[in-house]
Amino acid sequence: SRSHRIAVIPGDGIGTEVVPEGVRALRAAADAFGIGLDMVEYDFASAAYWQRHGTMLPEGWFDELKDYDALFLGAVGWPDVVPDHVSLWGSLLQFRRRFDQYANVRPVRLMPGVTSPLAGRGPGDIDFYVVRENTEGEYSSIGGRIFEGTERETVVQETVMTRTGVDRILRYAFELARGRERRKLTSATKSNGISQTMPYWDERVAAMAADHPDVAVDQYHIDILTAHFVLHPERFDVVVASNLFGDILSDLGPACAGTIGIAPSANINPERRYPSLFEPVHGSAPDIAGKGIANPVGQIWSASMMLDHLGEPEAAAAVLRAVEEVLAGDRAALTPDLGGSGTTASLGAAVAAAV
Amino acid sequence: SRSHRIAVIPGDGIGTEVVPEGVRALRAAADAFGIGLDMVEYDFASAAYWQRHGTMLPEGWFDELKDYDALFLGAVGWPDVVPDHVSLWGSLLQFRRRFDQYANVRPVRLMPGVTSPLAGRGPGDIDFYVVRENTEGEYSSIGGRIFEGTERETVVQETVMTRTGVDRILRYAFELARGRERRKLTSATKSNGISQTMPYWDERVAAMAADHPDVAVDQYHIDILTAHFVLHPERFDVVVASNLFGDILSDLGPACAGTIGIAPSANINPERRYPSLFEPVHGSAPDIAGKGIANPVGQIWSASMMLDHLGEPEAAAAVLRAVEEVLAGDRAALTPDLGGSGTTASLGAAVAAAV
Ligand SMILES: CC(C)[C@H](C(=O)O)[C@@H](O)C(=O)O
Ligand SMILES: CC(C)[C@H](C(=O)O)[C@@H](O)C(=O)O
User: InterPro entries recorded for this chain (chains A, B) (predicted)?
Assistant: First the structure.
């Protein structure tokens, strides 16, 4: 029977609470569809590991992880112990870069049973993808300070975009749009204000559009685009964006669709040279960590995306159906963020049972 | 009697349609309150000027404008004629920089008569300010391309933050918060991903917070902050942000409060060494330009902010009250974006009459 090797990395805060529920759903799907899952758990990429070792990852992490079929991550970040930019640049952002997971794919969907904060929107009204460039752009380690600690203190940070990096994410997004019914692609830009990189982004969008005449293309500056997410979410099908703009849109989109708590993401290396990484959009949420009330659906939906990527579309669909069934069912069974009185574990168990 | 000299710059597209309504409201207020207004109109900072002269501004623009008491701008940008980054860097962004208008102040308020896209929100529920750094940060002219036109093409863009630039906008925002009832300040950051400039921003916020113990401070990464705008807009009082983040939040905020069409902005040089600039948040809107249906309220509300800055608080309040009265009145009198069947001119006339 088919078998997949998965590295499980719970990380920090509610990551450690929702990952077990993702694993539970994975086991249920594996049992139901006769799939072998070899899951190995790692304690690195966490503040606890940092406290013991002074680094976020062990020296040999790349070789240790590179032959897995996928990485299943919770959330990283515990600012009371280690500053966020240190913990994230020391773990998640390394995974994305070193494993060349350049396509960060984030579905935005108003699910049955979930209430949108937008008036008059029901399931089916919001259903699109944010495709985020995941390795370059505004997230760059280049930069630093001069005249430190003085009145002349100046800090610079370099955004870097490359032909390779921009074209491959655009191609990925155009192909995704091409395979969907509406065949529509929206590009997030800010070429009126950001004078070098964003006009370049627009040029490459235009070039890629010429190669994809069957995809309808439009573009908006990021400021007005966020407004349209709120005012006209039904307009969007595939939204492609730079690293930072994609980061913003993939939190705003799920908020418009009710909650960040259920939003999944896939950090994909499309060439499959390295493992892809699956994680919820939400973070470690220090404010609710340890209470057992975190919503595990983002993690479980990420598990579904992982199964799909592993070539298990039926198991993936079963997990997503189970999520939909539970969300649309008894509201009391849901976690408090969805208006219920359930716990992380009870909601996770309900989904696993529905698989 | 008091008298003020104002440079009026309609710009492009709907800028040329809404500015006359702003002027009409200004004249009405001047009459009612015995204020002298000396308004001089300029045709530069427009695509038409660009077509004739090949530049957005005449050579002597700085000296021509620097002694005005204020600048009253419509909107700049007509991408069919001149690329946005060329027209904006050649006009509006020059004004902001050369006249050191470092505080871009943008009220976000759900007005009577306006429907929020957010379920269950009424007037009073959304009422805060976005204070945007307006001269440095992500909007920088530093950068360029290497290996142009080849597969190795690489584009860089430098974000620059300075102690001077960051501290003065934070101080402005803290002082604004201090003068309000809730005394609450929210900082927009992204220090987990943007590794140099945003951790610096956070440090300066912490330092400024220590100097303002009477202001309650919190901070959110920009991604989750956009989500909170949609899910919990009532939480915000004064939101301070870098140039780019402020740009995004000051479109998203007004969208949550119903429409971008009514949102005003003040580009302030607090030291009054140079004229401040007042303009609506919306742009030139090529899609609806020339139809006479653009909403003039953003321009008129900007006129109110200008009167306030000029030391005419009563006239400013009268204009804002007139706006509120008309918005809360007969819906049919409003422009189509607000569900009415009125025109730019009829709505402008109604506000002027109410002044
Ligand atoms: C037109 C554009 C350059 C401008 C900006 O990005 O600052 C506008 O969006 C604004 O918010 O004033
Ligand atoms: C934690 C943070 C560095 C990360 C990002 O900005 O990419 C997160 O917000 C995300 O969206 O995956």
Answer: ICDH/IPMDH, IsoCit/isopropylmalate_DH_CS, IsoPropMal-DH-like_dom, TTC_DH
Residue with CA closest to ligand 2 atom 6: B193
Nearest CA in chain A to B200: A155
Taking an 8 Å cut-off on Cβ atoms, the answer to whether A197 and B227 are in contact is no
For ligand 2, the distance from its centroid to the CA atom of residue B193, given in whole angstroms, is 6
Q: CA B261 to CA B295: how far, in whole Å? A: 6
Is the distance from the beta carbon of residue A114 to the nearest atom of ligand 2 less than 6 Å? no
Task: Give the domains, in start order, of chain A with CATH numbers.
Answer: 1-107+263-355 (3.40.718.10), 127-256 (3.40.718.10)
At residue A330, what is the residue type?
D
Determine whether the interchain pair A230/B255 forms a contact, defined as Cβ–Cβ distance below 8 Å.
yes
Q: Enter the tokens of residue A87.
A: 């913990």
Q: Judge if the beta carbon of residue B31 lies within 6 A of ligand 2.
A: no
Across the interface, whether the CB atoms of A157 and B89 are under 8 A apart is answered no
Question: pLDDT of chain B along its 355 residues, tens only?
Answer: 589 999 999 999 999 999 999 999 999 999 999 999 999 999 999 999 999 999 999 999 999 999 999 999 999 999 999 999 999 999 999 999 999 999 999 999 999 999 999 999 999 999 999 999 999 999 998 999 999 999 999 999 999 999 999 999 999 999 999 999 999 999 999 999 999 999 999 999 999 999 999 999 999 999 999 999 999 999 999 999 999 999 999 999 999 999 999 999 999 999 999 999 999 999 999 999 999 999 999 999 999 999 999 999 999 999 999 999 999 999 888 999 999 999 999 999 999 999 9
* CA–CA dist B323, A12 (Å, integer): 50
